[in-house]
Every structure is written in C-alpha cells, then in structure tokens.
Amino acid sequence: DAGVIQSPRHEVTEMGQEVTLRCKPISGHDYLFWYRQTMMRGLELLIYFNNNVPIDDSGMPEDRFSAKMPNASFSTLKIQPSEPRDSAVYFCASTRGGEQYFGPGTRLTVT
Amino acid sequence: AQSVTQLDSQVPVFEEAPVELRCNYSSSVSVYLFWYVQYPNQGLQLLLKYLSGSTLVKGINGFEAEFNKSQTSFHLRKPSVHISDTAEYFCAALKTSYDKVIFGPGTSLSVIP
C-alpha cells in the first residue's frame, strides 16, 4: 500500500486566496483525521470522519475552514480566505481502529 | 476528560547514552497507548503500541515502553541512542478502538555526538 497520500506537499499563497489541501487515505480505513501542526500550538486535531461522515469538527478554528469527504478514498480541507496565521503543516491520517497512519503533510505558507 | 502529559519538552542526551521519555495519561477507563516519532519535515510514524497483554512493549529502532497502570504511565526507553534518533516523540492515548486519539505535546530528543 502506498500509505496516506497528501497533496500538494508545499503550498505558498497570498493572504485572501483560497487553499485546498487533499488527502487519499489508506484503502480499507474507515476513519480519516485532519491535523494542524505549528511550533506554538503543537499538533491539533481539526476534524475527523467515520465512513465519510464528519464526527467531530470542534477543532476547526473558524468558519473559514471546511472539510469534506465525498467518498472513502478522498478528502479535502479548504481554507477560504486564507490568512498568514494559517501557515502550518497540515496532516491527514487514517485508521480502521487503533493506531493512525499519517501522511507526509502539506506545508502551507500564507504571505 | 482524557489527557496525555509529556513532562519534558526537550531532552538532550549524548550518543550511546540511555534515554527515557516520560508520558502520563489520565483516564478512568482502560486505554490503548502509543508512541509516535516525527523526524524533521516528515509525518508521524508509529514506534510502538500497547493494546493489552504484556506491559513491556518493544517497538522499532530498539525502543521499548512499559505500561504502568497504577502510575498511569507509559514511559519510552532506549538503552543506547544514536544520532539518527534525534526527532520529536509523541505519546498518545485512545479510549476505545473507535475514538479520536489524544496526543501529548511532544518531547524533542536531541542526541549530541
């Protein structure tokens, strides 16, 4: 298996622009998690899905953030409009129970 | 509420010396416990996990951890560290198989030549 796939690996954008991060979980995994990691706040859970349904989005910081999982093999995290304080590494992880498998992350820089 | 504490934010240690990274969890129910490692500019990788059974768990790269229910601890140890062990280490707990994992704040291990 290729593991959890994220794209793009790096994204540089200007404040106010829309940003879309993508994730392909491991086949057969029914849970998908989105995390954000910064030096100041560490690793934060933003939202997670079970069988494509959002279960807990209490970690989503603002209405500017939204996430979807249209099918079992694809999820997106969208930020609209983006702000400099959104700069971070965003990780996607999947599991079918127990330990999570992480993607390589997307490093987002908003200027 | 469940929480995971890692008492040391940074641990410097000389090469070939032993190391222990501390982790404590709070939970009123049985938990599953994990240690993850994050190398620079990479995602998190599972080092080892405790689900049940023997309280001493061995993982990859020579690491091991011991589950201590009475002290609610799951400390990570390695008898002799290498330069390549320099990384961020996260302890995590899961209340049931199908729940969100709670991560600790991480411990930065720096191995000094």
Explain what you see:
The complex is a heterodimer of chains A (111) and B (113). With 111 residues, chain A is mainly β. Chain A has strands at 5-7, 10-13, 19-24, 31-38, 42-50, 53-56, 65-71, 74-79, 88-95, 101-102, 106-110. In chain A, the strands form two sheets. In chain A, strands 2, 4, 5, 6, 9, 10 and 11 form a seven-stranded mixed sheet that branches. In chain A, strands 1-3-8-7 form a four-stranded antiparallel sheet, with no helix packed on it. In chain A, strand 5 (42-50) and strand 6 form a beta hairpin. Chain A is globular. The mean pLDDT of chain A is 94. By secondary structure, chain B is mainly beta. Chain B has strands at 3-5, 10-14, 19-21, 24-26, 32-38, 44-50, 56-58, 64-68, 73-78, 87-94, 102-103, 107-112. In chain B, strands 2, 5, 6, 10, 11 and 12 form a six-stranded mixed sheet that branches. Chain B is globular, with a radius of gyration of 13 Å. The N and C termini of chain B lie far apart (41 Å). The mean pLDDT of chain B is 90. The chains are: A mainly beta (111), B mainly beta (113). The A-B interface holds A 4, 31, 33, 42-43, 45, 48, 50, 56, 91, 93, 97-105 and B 32, 34, 36, 42-46, 49, 51, 90, 94, 97-98, 100-101, 103, 105-106.
Structure, briefly:
With 111 residues, chain A is mainly β. Chain A has strands at 5-7, 10-13, 19-24, 31-38, 42-50, 53-56, 65-71, 74-79, 88-95, 101-102, 106-110. Chain A is built from no helices and eleven strands.
Give the overall shape of chain A, derived from the CA principal axes. Answer: globular
Helix content of chain A: under 10%
* Number of helical stretches of at least 4 residues of chain A: 0
The most extensive interface between chains reads: A-B, 20 and 19 residues
- Proportion of strand residues of chain B: over 45%
| N-to-C span of chain B | 41 Å
Round the Cα radius of gyration of chain A to an integer and report it.
13 Å
Largest sheet of chain B: 6 strands, mixed
Label the overall shape of chain B: globular
N-C termini distance of chain A: 36 Å
What is the subunit arrangement here?
heterodimer
Spans of chain B of at least 5 consecutive residues whose pLDDT stays below 50 are none
Continuous helix count of chain B: 0
Q: Measured on Cα atoms, how large is the radius of gyration of chain B?
A: 13 Å
Report mean pLDDT of chain A, rounded to a whole number.
94
Largest sheet of chain A: 7 strands, mixed
